[in-house]
Task: inverse folding
């Protein structure tokens, strides 16, 4: 694990392999270890960067009320600067996918490709904003285990849990180790985010969209709409898979990634 100061915060990251750079953004309430299977599958051919978002994993927890997607996108740009990478393929899952959308919106010149997994572009409804803020308060008052653990049945499809129960252990371990204050700040910031639906139409780089049919948070129809909005995009639907296709269907997810990445010219 490496550490560097990014925008006043200590950020933990890994930088493995060589070749075209691809940076992975984890979701909430996880850390960069959720991408371990992709690091193992890609780093022999590509330069793979993973990192813990500010407030998550081994990165520093900022003393702020809310951490916005724009702040996290700025951290990515600064991390790429630190690594002397002008442009990268950026991949994000769930909240990480929304951060990837923010990055594409703010720093399109730094993007050579985009992967949006188990995510959606719409802003939160008034009801969802209230729920996120209530959940943020629960993280502060109860810690990460209770509110985060309640997510587990919605994160992983029942068939995946039956086939490989170890997934639940790995995911719950990430959740339990998430700093409550960091998760709460990210939830409050996420509740403030803009709607990226229109921004998708301005994405010009090759884009891969991945969705599971058993995703409890996002309907396949939403992914279809994203694919129709982004000009140079393709959609991969994972039958019987939940909110974590990179962990539930690792072999297929990695194969799809390899195929997608092979079509992107080296930057």
Result:
């Amino acid at each position: 694990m490496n550490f560097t100061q990014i925008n006043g915060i200590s950020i933990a990251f890994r930088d493995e392999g060589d070749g075209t750079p691809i940076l992975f953004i984890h979701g909430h309430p996880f850390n960069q270890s959720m991408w371990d299977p992709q690091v193992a599958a890609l780093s022999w051919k590509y330069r793979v960067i993973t990192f813990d978002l500010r407030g998550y994993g081994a990165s520093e927890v900022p003393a702020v009320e809310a951490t916005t997607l724009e702040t996290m996108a700025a951290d990515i740009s600064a991390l790429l600067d630190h690594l002397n990478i002008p442009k990268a393929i950026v991949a994000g899952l769930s909240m990480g996918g929304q951060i990837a959308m923010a990055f594409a919106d703010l720093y399109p010149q730094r993007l050579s490709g985009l992967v949006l997994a188990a995510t959606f572009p719409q802003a939160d409804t008034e009801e969802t904003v209230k729920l996120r803020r209530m959940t943020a308060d629960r993280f502060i008052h109860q810690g990460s285990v209770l509110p985060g653990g309640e997510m587990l049945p919605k994160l992983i499809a029942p068939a995946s849990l039956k086939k490989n129960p170890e997934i639940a252990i790995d995911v719950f371990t990430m959740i339990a180790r998430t700093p409550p204050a960091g998760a709460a700040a990210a939830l409050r910031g996420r509740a403030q985010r803009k709607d990226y639906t229109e921004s998708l139409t301005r994405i010009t780089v090759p884009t891969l969209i991945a969705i599971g049919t058993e995703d409890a948070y996002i309907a396949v129809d939403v992914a279809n709409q994203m694919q129709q909005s982004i000009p140079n995009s393709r959609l991969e639907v994972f039958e019987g898979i939940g909110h974590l296709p990179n962990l539930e269907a690792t072999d297929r997810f990695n194969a799809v990634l390899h195929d997608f990445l092979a079509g992107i010219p080296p930057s």
